[in-house]
Amino acid sequence: MKALILTLILSGSVMAEVKLASPFTCHMVLQRDMKVPIWGTADADEKVTVAFAGQKVSVKAAANGEWRADLEPLKTSADSRDLTITGSNTEQPLILDDVLVGEVWLASGQSNMDFSMSKKVKYFAGVVNEDEEIAAAKFPLIRMFTGTASKSYTPQSSVGGEWKVCSPETAPSFSAVGYFFARDLQKEIQTPVGIVTLAFGASTAEAWIRREALTADPMLNPMLNRFDTAVHDFLTNPPPLVASTTPNVKFGSKDPSQDQHNPTVLFNGMIRPVIPFAIRGVIWYQGESIVGGSTGVALYPQVQSTLIHDWRQLWGEGNFPFYIVQLAGQEAASNSPLVRQAQASVLSLPNTGMAVTTDIGEAKNVHPHNKQDVGNRLARIAMANVYEKKIEFSGPVYDSMKIEGNSIRVEFTHTNGELVAKDGGPLKWFEIAGADMNFLPAEAKIDGDSVVVSNPQVSTPIAARYAWVNFPDGCNLFNAAGLPAAQFCTDTRPAN
Question: 467 with 490: CB under 8 angstroms?
């Protein structure tokens, strides 16, 4: 018997198992109304057949064993169906059960996207009214794939994780923002919703971008060169290992390829393995590492736009929606208004949106627990711009200013018919400046779709701004839809 097995191995006759790529597991949601790539590995030249929803597509595996079959656009379906993969050299088909068809979104970024519903799962997490929210998480048409954290210097072909059906038993480990986004979206559009969560705490945006995109950009290539040098030095002159207090564990200097602040490492480990899984769009929540990364605030708009352009190119679905969360207010220096300003540059790109969260921050916590409003505001952007629902999706947005004597009239769009002070009191965090650009607290009064700003000490004003501090506690300019105004400054000159 052993001789027979050895003969088969040597002759290459042993049948290899047909395998699916990482994002394909039981309970998944496939994207409706667009071609759906299904891919994996098999024997070289093996015929692989994918069967689902009445379709049957056959392809031949390449010389390296890779194969890909594209299903034609699928209709929305909440019916639990099987997806079957059959290989010509494989005895048993591979069957994935309980597959739905609906809307699929990728959720990525750093710790505030990784932030789980329950503090029992992650020490820094846990949403407002955690127990009640988890007990109510009974939405079998919502599914989430949570990718295992993985960093790599080279592109990987797989990432750990599996699709889970939303229930009180599974929801504690779900991305809170991803869950609330899916919950509010699913209630409105009444179709299955799948979330692919690929997030990692303290990661920089450049960690999520592939090497080729950074290499091609003269502004960003230097960071890649520094990273390559650090990896080369680590490999050619490894630091001595030091025994730890844990048996059989030793520590040395940190491997640069395992640092989530370095370019490409999270793209290689987590994003590359799921491309081109069909998605409707991306929700993105990236925060304080904008400041601490190799780019800093000044280069962040370039990094952000490069990431968006490159992901869209790699997925090959055109300019799919890309919606970000602007940082909430917080006292730390890393939460400066310059960071939020850099994030807002995303709105210059087509088919983008930004959920403003300045009002829900916590003074001493970079991980605010109110993730319900974050998910809802992202869902509103999607509902209005993707699913054509007639709802307001943005808070008041600065449009223009006009000097009126010793006052400045600030005009807004997205008022939803009315500007309001949320708590009914006077407007807070408005400032005004004269030619010296010394901003002083201002009295601000709502007048229709505008706010009139003044201070008796500034007789000839030239600029006004709002919420232009790290933690604008109690910032209260909202529209009639209950959405907050974003920070703004009417002048780009440096302030004193």
Answer: no
Look at the chain and count its residues: 496
Taking Cα atoms as reference points, which of 460, 423, 470, 425 lies closest to residue 443?
A: 425
Which residue type is seen at 117? M
* SS3 assignment, position 489: strand
Beta-sheet strands, E only, within 167-286 = 193-199, 242-243, 250-251, 281-285
Residue with tokens 């009445």: 54
Give one word for 12, left, alpha or beta, with left for phi > 0 and alpha for psi -120 to 50. left
Q: Tell me the pLDDT tens digit for each residue of 204-263.
A: 999 999 999 999 999 999 999 999 999 999 999 887 765 555 454 444 458 999 999 999
Domains of the chain: 100-393 (3.40.50.1110), 397-489 (no CATH)
d(CA 207, CA 227): 11
**What is the pTM (predicted TM-score) of this model?**
0.94
Taking the C-alpha atoms of residue 488 and residue 358, their distance in angstroms, rounded to an integer, is 12
SS (H, E, C) 83-144: EEEEECCCCCCEEEEEEEEEEEEEEEECHHHHCECCCCCCCCCCCCCHHHHHHCCCEEEEEE
Identity of residue 129: N
Q: Cα-Cα-Cα-Cα dihedral of 457, 458, 460, 462, to 10°?
A: 180
- The Cα–Cα gap between 461 and 453 comes to 10
